[in-house]
UniProtKB/TrEMBL annotation:
The keyword Transmembrane applies. InterPro entries: Ostalpha/TMEM184C. SMART domains: Solute_trans_a (SM01417). This is Protein LAZ1 homolog 2 isoform X1. Signal peptide: none annotated. One of its GO terms (cellular component) is membrane. PANTHER family: ORGANIC SOLUTE TRANSPORTER-RELATED. GO terms for molecular function: transmembrane transporter activity. It is found in: Membrane. The chain crosses the membrane at residues 20-42, 54-74, 94-115, 166-186, 198-218, 239-260, 272-292. GO terms for biological process: negative regulation of brassinosteroid mediated signaling pathway; vesicle-mediated transport to the plasma membrane. Keywords: Membrane, Transmembrane, Transmembrane helix.
Length: 420
């Protein structure tokens, strides 16, 4: 009976597979055309590199998701590889969104100044306050209760939350590939001897922490971010991240409880088909949320530079038989706008963006290793003090022995003198 049931389900899967590819392909085509068009508009109007390079990275999330999902739907053998690439880019897109918010606020230095100003406003009271109480208000607990009082520490926590997710997501993706090769990954299987539930738990916590850090950072800076309409951007971006992750977990849970068929092809195919549809919706939303219209007009005072060049040329004017010298003044004005060509914009996105990512990853790893180094240093110091203490005890014992021997020798010599 089970074999007949499985054959019937496989036949049903084959019957819906081709229509699903055709329908999903239509949605993917819409997503690709709209997203590439929006990216091309930003590259053509690349007047604010600090912001637009992160916008391009966020918008490019749709073509990556859509193309990998339709490829996985077409051939299930590519499902795991596509899932790994999709997860890696999702982590990078989340990091890009946080970097975009920082760029909209004027860069890291201005963000730190802004957060310190907000912290002073929250900590200031009519009565004089003890410095110890002010330091206590900057404790880690206030990240959940009153994040505005943390000052520049809030920026550090926010950056650490984004980068840790990017690192863990990438490491877990390749770990899943290794476990799949060894046959112990069990994609969608909530069993203790498979690696899937443990990796899912780690990624779930890491993603929730990263998104919570973004929310807390938004709560403190949303007044300054009003010109870019941050709420719509938050909703559109979080919808993509949450839809893909929780949707996959939800399908796995339904398959585990027998609500849906547990065959791997059906489970992964349903996830890929839904992502194809969702990416078309996300591409339409991005046209309005991450529009290139605000960047089409260059503000020279802020993003460009006007240079004036004066040239003087000596000329000779002939009047009859006489030649008189004359000076011709010529003034040329040049408007220099950075990153206005597609070649320059693409180069800035790949080179500038990668340098920023590497710098933040190295900084985050150092911040994570620093407490461990401090603990190791303290342990070494403790052992060093213990060894010194034991050395002193040994020296004291040796001195006591020498004193005891000297005393015995003196007593013997005195006894010999008394006998004489």
């Amino acid at each position: 009976m089970d074999s007949i049931h499985n054959l019937a389900l496989q036949g049903a899967y084959k019957n819906v597979h081709l229509p699903a590819i055709m329908i999903g392909g239509c949605f993917v085509l819409v997503a690709l055309v709209l997203s590439i068009l929006l990216i091309f508009q930003h590259l053509r109007s690349y007047t604010n590199p600090a912001e637009q390079k992160w916008i391009v990275a966020i918008v490019f999330m749709v073509p990556v998701y859509a193309s990998e999902s339709i490829l996985s739907l077409w051939n299930p053998r590519f499902s795991l590889a596509c899932d790994i690439l999709r997860n890696c880019y999702e982590a990078f897109a989340l990091y890009s969104f946080g970097s975009y918010l920082i760029a909209c606020l004027g860069g890291e230095e201005r963000v730190i100044t802004l957060l310190e100003t907000e912290s002073r406003k929250k900590l200031t009271k009519p009565l004089l306050e003890d410095k110890k109480q002010a330091v206590q208000k900057r404790s880690f607990l206030n990240f959940f209760i009153r994040p505005s009082v943390l000052g520049k520490d809030l920026y550090t926590v926010e950056k650490f939350g984004l980068v840790q997710y990017m690192i863990l997501k990438t490491v877990c993706a390749f770990l899943a590939l290794l476990l799949e090769i060894l046959g112990v990954y069990g994609d969608g299987e909530f069993k203790w001897y498979y690696g899937y539930p443990y990796i899912a738990a780690v990624l779930n916590f890491s993603q929730m922490w990263a998104l919570y850090c973004l929310v807390q950072f938004y709560n403190v800076t949303h007044d300054r971010l009003q010109p870019i309409k941050p709420l719509a951007k938050f909703i559109s971006f979080k919808a993509i991240v949450f839809a893909t992750w929780w949707q996959g977990v939800g399908i796995a849970i339904l398959c585990a409880f027998g609500v849906l068929h547990k065959e791997g092809k059906f489970q992964n195919g349903l996830q890929d088909f839904l992502i194809c549809i969702e990416m078309a919706i996300a591409a339409v939303a991005h046209i309005f949320v991450f529009s290139a219209k605000p960047y089409r007009f260059l503000s020279v005072s802020e993003y460009g530079k006007v240079t004036t060049q004066e040239t003087k040329t000596m000329m000779k004017l002939q009047e009859g038989d006489m030649e008189k010298p004359a000076i011709l003044d010529r003034t040329e004005t040049h408007n220099e706008a950075p990153g206005t060509s597609i070649r320059e914009s693409v180069q800035d996105i790949f080179v500038g963006g990668s340098e920023h990512v590497v710098k933040d990853v190295v900084l985050t790893i150092n911040q994570a290793i620093e407490p461990v180094e401090k603990v190791g240093t303290r342990i070494q110091e403790t052992f060093h003090h213990i060894s010194l203490g034991s050395g002193k005890k040994e020296e004291c014992s040796e001195a006591e022995v020498e004193k005891h021997v000297d005393r015995e020798n003196i007593a013997r010599s005195e006894s010999k003198v008394s006998k004489f």
